Every structure is written in structure tokens, then in C-alpha cells.
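Narrative of activities, Objective 1.

The group set out to show that a structural description can be obtained from nothing but a protein's sequence at a throughput compatible with the screening campaign. Below is one input-output pair from the validation batch, recorded exactly as produced.
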Amino acid sequence: MRWRDSKIVGRCVQADIVSPAPCAGKRSGWYSRLDAQERTVLKMIDPDSELGARYQSIMTNPDWYQTNIPCQVGCPAHTDVSTYIGLISQARFDEAYLLNRKANVVPGVLGRTCARPCEPVCRRNKVDGKPIAICWLKRAAADHREYQHRAERPPVTKDKKVAVVGAGSAGLAAARDLREMGYPVALYEEYPTAGGVMVNGIPVWRLPRNVTYEECDEYMADLGVEMHYNTRVGRDIQVTDLLKEYDSVYLAAGCYVSNPLTGADNKVIRGADLKGVEDGIKLLAKTNYGEPAFIGKKVIVLGGGFTAMDCCRTSLRFGAEKVYVLYRRSQEEMPSDEYEVDEAMFEHVEFQYLVTQVEVLSDDGVHVSGLKLIRNKLGDPDSSGRRRPIPIPGSEFVIEADTIIPAFGQSSDGSWLPAKELNLEANRWGIPLVDRDTWMTSYPGLFAGGDYTEGSRNLISAIADGRDAASAINRYLGGVDKPAQAAEEIELPDYRRGMVDDYESIGFRNIPGLPLQDRFSNTRETEIGYSPEQAVEQARRCLQCQLNIMIDPSICILCSGCVDICPYDCISMEGLSRVVKGDPMHLGTEVWRGGADMIIDEEKCIRCGLCIVRCPTDAISMVQFEVASPNERWTVSKIPMLNVK
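Output recorded for this entry:
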């Protein structure tokens, strides 16, 4: 448990926060020098004296506080999750939406499509096995806000201009931040709308276009970003022209080159060029923009990622009668999350695992008639950390199909970038190499990032890259970072959430969706979203990990009342012998005859406040941690909590 200061009181010594130490179990020399009688006396004073050292204390500095909010650590954009969930629990949807938009630019989009890296690390998982519905609650804030919140146009205060290539996640994030810093920004986009993969890769039935239009096109227009749609850099205008016209250029062109249809030997399989073979990302672009696209009655989708899930379910909405998803590894290694797979299975998509494509078959030599496959077994892990699929000789079989959709991921296109002319350091595919600290290429003033340099990932990672790049560009052009705010600890008086809120017993609820018979439309959104009441209830499940228990050592009497009342046994009283000797917070205690530390397991604490109510001397309090890093890239906001009294 964390103390207010390092003061030693009587036989009670501070232990700010503790964790298992690597030297656990080792015995210090002083103990071995005691005789039998002295050891007996010591055991009476300190019952743990015969046990090995297990804990080591560390200072509760801002870095520790930040890492103690696992959802915010897991989010690449470091969205202030605990605060916006707290706002939603109070039905303050507008404030939650604006807080999200500041951190991740397109909250309505992300609330429907985010990869949710925050949820697997959510501490609520340790309570009932289910995380807070962080992603879907983000959507609820967007759906139920009272006002649209059109952005005010920041004044132009800088005399240097920036061009951004690509209006996808990274490009939009960089353009937004640079405009707010006062730079004039021009954005060049190949397609007729902003959004990148949000509009050309994610189906309409998952992400309505009124949402992308508001958060991408309108938002950029309101901010005063100069948009150049239907303009392909490398064809309609050259990078060299942009470098002459602008003081800095940021390349955020995304990943749109489909990986080839290969077999177990990584060579393109026979029949990959037959009619009926459709690249996944290109097929989604056609269906999203209303272009002619062929999807037959029997469809095979190859792959296990987000694109594969979108392709298989889109095929059903375009009239396919039977859809298979084939994946070369087991379900455990599949990149798609469990929810996506469950939804596809609910729509009667059939999954087959541990199979690899061998040959695309054709009855007439022109059109697809089926796919020959071979079964696999799993071997040792490969470079990705997943077990390598190994073909089983003699296990070949055939599935009839008239459409085969490879969805093996994408790579970046470097053909339009004049790397040699600019003397750019680039990889073998022509993609520029960047300094990860500055996001600048080897050509001064030319920056690159997002999926274009990092490979195909997810929206929120690219948004984080774009925001980091904007800060780097600002520094390159002579600007300075917005200073950090000093970390603060704000005590919440009379905190007793566990006595007035049944948040611990609220169960997880999946986001409501359309019944099966109503799903097969390419333009009707499949997920309905939480109602305001459902959103408030789901938000109340949040444990609010930006809150932390503090103890005042000057009035703690070591009565162990907090240990007795804690519902999850996360508080314990340990003898000094359990703390690693030489620990900086325990200097001088080696000669003590006994003593105790109060230990709290942060992974178990649900912030109920019952220990605060139980403490007879009011030594325990609940403290809210507040901080803002440079450029507000990591912010824990100063907004009061729900149900503290």
C-alpha cells in the first residue's frame, strides 16, 4: 500500500507499492547470526521472519501511476479511457465524445471498428472474466451526444506550410494536430472522400458513411484543412513538387497492395489468375464505392484477419449461399477476435482450420470451379510467435466454389515515390526508412508513417503514429512542445462507492444487433448499439483504475481492519522480513526487532472504498491521479467520479 511520504512510524514502515522480487527466498546475513532464543523472540514479534523476502517497494511517481491504468497503456493513442467511461456512467455523453475526439480523432468510427487492444488488459477481466466494453461505449458517446460539436477553425499562426499525403487514419490525425498548432495544412487524397480504409476497406454495414463523412470530411473542412480529393500523388502531382511547395511533407499513404495467393511454399499457386479470384481489399473497395463486383453463390475466403471477416460477411450480403473461411493455423492463432468469429458463425459462415490452399481449380480453364487444399499440423513457432503450419502428405481434398477471395493482408506501394531521385534510404520494396523518434526519412523535411511504413495493423495504431508525427513535424519546423502539466493527487473525500453502487455485480452485455433475418443488406448497419440506459449500466462496471488507495502512516495503528473487510483479499499485513533487504524505502530497518508493511495487490483492488469506511483512524483515503504529458499525448483528466459518496 502506498504511503503519503517515506516517514517511519513506530514499527510500521512505508512500502509505496510492492511486487514479487527476483531475489525472493534469499536470507540476509543478520538473521543467520541470531541464536535460537533470539529467533524465537523475533518470530513472536514478526511471524513472517522465517519466510524469505518477497516484496520490493518502488516510488509512486507519475510513471508508475500511468502504468497502473492498463487500458490507457494498451491504447496506442493513450486515450483517457477511465475518465470517458466515468463520464458515460453519468450519462455525460457529449463530454465523453469530446474527450475521445481529442485523443483519437474519430470516436464514432472507432466505436464500431477499433481493434480494442485496451480490452484484453482491462482489470475488470480479473473480476468476472469480461472487460469493460470500452470500444462499444465509445460508440455510445457518439450516438447519444446531444450536439454535433462542429469544430472551431484554429487561426493560422505559423508561416510554414505542411502537406499530408493520404487522408486515412494517420493522415487525418497528423493534419488535425498540425492545424490546431496553427499550421496551414493541405491534404492530398486519391479517393473522392476522406477516411482511407475507413471508407474503402470497411463495409457500410459495419460503418455507416454518415459517420465517416462527419468525422473525416466535415471535421477536416471545419478545421480549415485544404483538401485535394481525387488527387493521386505520383500521378497527378509528384512528391518532388510537394517538397518544393511545402516546408514539410508527411507520407501516410496506407497499405493497399494485396499479398499474393501463395501456397505452403510461399509461391503463387496454379490458377491464381482465374476469373472468380478476387483480392479481398480490392473487392471491399468495389462494394463500398458501388462499383461492379462479382460474388458467386459458393465463396471461399482465405485468411483469418479483419479483412477476411469483412469479406465473408459481405459475400452473404451480396447473395452468396455458402461461405467458407479457411485458415492455415488453428483458431487460437487466428488474428480475428472471438466476437468477430462468433458473429460470422451466427450468419452461417463455415470455418475450417489447419488447411492450406494448393491449387485453384477450373472446369473450363477460365472460371473458378473449386479449390484444392491440404490439411496441416502445427509445428514449432515461427518469427511471428505462432506455431508454423506443416502440410500433412496425402491429406488433400477439394471444396467446390465459384469465388475465391484471398485476404492475406496488404503491403505498401513504393513505386510512386522517387527514392533514387531524392536519395532516400528505403527498403527493398521502395518504402522509405524512418527514424522512429522523429518519423523523418533521410530526406530533410520528408516524414512518413502510419501503415505506410509500419505495415498493415489497425486504425488506432495509425492514429497514434499520425499524432506523434505531427509533434515531430512541429519540432522540425521550429515549434515547441506544449509543456507537460505536473502530476497531481486529488483526494476524494468520504469515498464509499462499494456501499452505494452495485457495479461489481453488473454483468457484461454484448452490443445489440439485428436479428439474423434482417442482416443481409449491405447498407443497413448490423450492430444497433447500446441504448443510453444500457451504456450507463455498462460504464458503471468500470473499476476506475486512475484511483488509488493511500494510507497515512502517522495515524495507521496496524489494526488489520482493512485486511478483514477487503472483499477480494487484496490487502495484507506482512512482516518486514518479507521486504527485500536494502530496499530504498526500508533503509535502517535491518536492526529493528520487528515491524510490518501494509501490502496491496493492485490487480485485485476494485476501488470499492470499504477499507476507507472501515479504518477507525481515517488513515486510508482514495486519491485520483491527474496528469498531462507534453502535447497532451497522455492525459488523465480532472473530472470528478461517480458514486463516491
